[in-house]
Fold these 2 entries.
Entry 1:
Amino acid sequence: MPKTIPADSVGLVTPQSLHFDSPLELDCKRSLPAYDLVYETYGELNAEHSNAVLICHALSGDHHAAGYHSMEDSKPGWWETCIGPGKPIDTNRFFVVCPNNLGGCKGSTGPMSLNPEKNKPYGPDFPIVTVKDWVRSQARLADALEIEQWAAVIGGSLGGMQAMQWSIDYPERLQHAVVIAAAPKLSAQNIGFNEVARQAIMSDPDFHKGHYYEHDVIPRRGLMLARMLGHITYLSDEAMRAKFGRELREGKLNFGFDVEFQVESYLRYQGQSFVEKFDANTYLLMTKALDYFDPAADYDNNLARALQRAKADFLLIAFTSDWRFAPERSREIVKALLHSKKNVSYAEIEAHHGHDAFLMPIRNYMDVFHRYMERINTGQ
Amino acid sequence: MQELRPELRIIADWIAPASRVLDLGCGDGTLLAYLRDHQQVSGYGLEIDPDKVADAIDNSVNVIQTDLDRGLNDFETGAFDYVVMSQTLQAVHYPDRLLEEMLRVGREGIITFPNFGHWYCRLQLLRGRMPVTPSLPNTWYNTPNIHLCTLRDFEALCAEKDFHILERTVVDHAHRTSLPMRLLPNLMGEVALYRFQRRAR
């Protein structure tokens, strides 16, 4: 818990919410008749509305990207390293907006929300949403906030994919796209990991085909396994070795199947604490959105053609030890941008943290990110 | 108005306004920023050093962090009017292949390198020591320069590859030129600058 709020934090923040009445047509051919988006903002919107930045969150992220909800919070928002006064996304200059995506479980309409047709939570009946759907819903949020054009749309991992999709679907509505630790689409290996995570959840006896809310249970074991698996893919071999090695909790082998190695204890803890704060149906939806992401598919599977539409300038950042979305995957995006003659810069950051590096205050990463953001013209 | 170091000044003068340029080993992006601001040139820089990449981003230059030894596969054939490589040829693993690549992705190549045939280098070799000079300041055991050549070597390679040399300038380490340098370039020139293209078939 912060006794005092650090000077480079946005401080205490309160989530806001907007209700949208007009139906949102979805890629799956269904539509959401009405929905809520919960979001947070940091900094001040200028008179010209030209300094707004959209932050898109990743798989298990939410709208709480920076600051604290109360003095009792043990941790700040998930991207506290990058958002705040004097940080790369400098709230002295930018008005930062971070929504919780549709299908989420932190306040925006999702599987836990009431299905108006059935008068019970959507559960598994919540439509499968895609990155394009999210971008469409975020564009409506921008309309509501009277933001005609974002100074930048920024995201890491699945968030970076949304930034990319923004540049293709609404070329006029962003000046810059910052795409961090992302990929142009998932590989078979990526989809394979997602499928194992989904099977873990769906094969949990407490899953009840997604209707577990009605049974007053949660597929605890399945969601925990999904998170444990995910967590391994977010870290590099080197980072795990450095953090845990083969350290034993009790200093000796017990010849049993209880927790013995520190890494087992850590993963179980991560899994268990995740279960308390995340919804299994949302997890399933988010992994599907990842699997389906493929912006080139609408353009003869030609990513350069897809990005030809973009008018934004791009910054791409990848991390050397990220094997979930390795630098080669970012370079595929860079290559497509080069072919379509877009303004693009690319930095490959030396980091041992694996995919999670995009959340870490790595010097060269902060430097590149900060200096790129500094050059963005907010018209002031 | 930005001050351009003399070598880059010569290169900038060789580049036509409003052209597209790829700068291999662009450093902090000074050349590209200058060309953008004064000659409406667009393009990209490639750089391996992370701090220089950040500096180039500061200069609002398009910079791609990469190792030139990976080649230029990310670029399409004929994508650029000029491909520039300043003081980098001697540090790459496959200079001959990179020169080929330069003329695949660009119409013309512009290159600068330290001349290993300079009299002072030759003198030090005659004395039995590896040259250490103002334009080659590194010791033999701690140098990025693994493929040093002379003007004559470079021109022989160009002939072999059927590259046509359009322009050549030789200067000293302060980038001044002189009559002896013009008369005996391979002996008197410290730094060589070339503009070349593929010979029309």
Note: Residues 95-105 of chain B form the longest helix (11 residues).
Entry 2:
Amino acid sequence: MINKTVKNAQEAVQDVFSNAVLMFGGFGLSGIPENSIQALLAMNINGLTCISNNAGVDDFGIGLMLQKRMVKKMISSYVGENAEFERQLLSGELEVELIPQGTLAERVRAGGAGIPAFFTPAGVGTEVAEGKELREFDDKLYLLERWLKADFAFVKAWKGDTAGNLIYKGTARNFNPMMAAAGKITIAEVEELVPAGELDPNQIHTPGIYVQRIFQGKNYEKRIEQRTVRK
Amino acid sequence: MLTKDQIAQRIAKEVKDGQYINLGIGIPTLVANYIPDDLDVILQSENGLLGIGPFPTEDQVDPDLINAGKQTITMTKGSALFSSAESFAMIRGGHVQLTILGAMEVSENGDIANWKIPGKMVKGMGGAMDLVASAERIIVAMQHCSKNGQSKLLKSCTLPITGIRCVDMIVSDMAVLEVLPEGGFKLLERAPGISVEEIKSKTEGKLIIEGEIPEMNFAN
């Protein structure tokens, strides 16, 4: 069995280069590759294009990469939780492509699945449709949207094995499976890394073929944005 | 004027047994508190869950289990978890029957604006554009007027729109209105203590009034 294990986050991300296109799994701060982001922060790179549903918060997640001015462009669907992001965007320092969440998910899925483009109804008649081909199918208008791919995709799973197979937990799955498939080099960090053969093949969410490097993450903070409890 | 909770309570009366429903952030999230116990509905969270349960108790809090508003949640019995691509496949595929979301403006032909104020607010559209483009029925929870009294129910939206010709019903703090397929806001109910004249003066778009307009009834 091919062993995809690397020692740690530093080793996993060492060849990420300036101006690369990166994907990050996660929704809000749930299911984000915390260890890989920390390792990227220690590198002297910039001009990055980051594809991620959100942009973290000011002091956590991708927000930290924005603070360090490592990011040239963000491709996201919702960035409401990040004041520094909003500042850089309104001042023109940061390029931003905001796209509907389902379109983002499907563009990434298409990238991993070898589908160069597809039609979706989301955004018809809005500024998202500007410059895009419109076509009518069965009396309804649809927009042509293209695939998204990345030089590196960073994903976070609950469990993984040395062959790169991944299992996610709860709603921390979100964008991780599609991004795993859409990266030229996909780097997976997991809370629990086990030898190949120990995970039930029936339960695998991301087959190891999509993962080039895997490591056991550590010190997960798993920060909660809106801690809401019932009395 | 209705409170946010009263708007949610009134919208809950539109929910039908057996529906799969997506609730947006803000007032729509509150609707869950008012769905009668004898209705079996399944709430969809676009970050990958069918079967949103109540907020957790302190010891149930799990950072790996949140709703689209990033609030911690629990799962109901019979829940299913999935990826964002699967989530929006079920939304675009028309499997989610009812979408309830907030709006900054709605036009008389059913256009909705709720994602951007140019030069001021750039939070992004999240899943709203996908939801409004595909849901079978869309109910909007909103304030009837801005803070300085300007109508938000307009002839045409002034803000960048989220979707065209998609809103079916509006529950505002002043009224319940149906958006007619041929255009126009048809007044169905008034908030307690609000007159038809007041609603007329606060609605810029075409308002259709037929016969007596009853006050909202909050009894189930």
Note: The mean pLDDT of chain B is 95.
